[in-house]
């Protein structure tokens, strides 16, 4: 039986777009830009599950909730990448290379700046958990199977006590828009990225509708050709009889 610890009082200590399960589970799940059945993921054995749409405040919230629960030893990244923000790639880069000058080393997102986490907190996160990457997978069967696999490798709670950090949101609570203190130019870039992302989603939906209409039209034409061919064949078969009758 592996050793377990009590998480910080009131865990999860940071509120956000996630669900919670067994606080003694060794697995935390991040669905990135996808909205999956997070409660179902928790019911399958995850301690916490939710999305991460930004490469700054979103990542900070996850880390704050992870390091305040020593039982979480694996972070399972799944779901689709967030266009422009690249929060998944930035999250993996932070675990691999940390932060230098406030910026995530190796991150490709637009604004990968960390403001609320100390070097100590980031080091604790790197030491406490192993990152498991199955991003672009939204299949619940695959996710649940991976949770079972990781739980079977549970090394027990991290030996240090829960670490509590405060994550301040910009504008007194604006949900994951930008990190406090970031250059206004970065905020403008992020607003433009959000607008581009919305436009891309609209275009994707429009293309899907057009493809659907085209497929429907082609199927209609095919049915018409088949029906016409059947009628033609029937006429060929009946024509000799009609000529004999006449």
From TrEMBL:
GO terms classed as biological process: methanogenesis, from carbon dioxide; methylation; one-carbon metabolic process
Listed GO MF terms: cobalt ion binding; tetrahydromethanopterin S-methyltransferase activity
Protein keywords: Cell membrane, Cobalt, Membrane, Methanogenesis, Methyltransferase, One-carbon metabolism, Transferase, Translocase, Transmembrane, Transmembrane helix
The protein's name: Multifunctional fusion protein
GO cellular component, one term: plasma membrane
Family: Belongs to the MtrG family.
Intracellular or extracellular location(s): Cell membrane
Enzyme class: translocase
Transmembrane spans: 219-239
Role according to the record: Part of a complex that catalyzes the formation of methyl-coenzyme M and tetrahydromethanopterin from coenzyme M and methyl-tetrahydromethanopterin. This is an energy-conserving, sodium-ion translocating step.
Bilayer disposition of the protein: Single-pass membrane protein
InterPro entries in alphabetical order: MeTrfase_MtrA/MtxA, MtrA, THM_MeTrfase_su_G
Any matching Pfam family: MtrG
Keyword Metal-binding among record annotations: no
Cofactor(s) needed by this chain: 5-hydroxybenzimidazolylcob(I)amide
Pathway as given in its UniProt record: One-carbon metabolism; methanogenesis from CO(2); methyl-coenzyme M from 5,10-methylene-5,6,7,8-tetrahydromethanopterin: step 2/2
Quaternary structure annotation from Swiss-Prot or TrEMBL: The complex is composed of 8 subunits; MtrA, MtrB, MtrC, MtrD, MtrE, MtrF, MtrG and MtrH.
Chain sites annotated for binding 5-hydroxybenzimidazolylcob(I)amide: 85
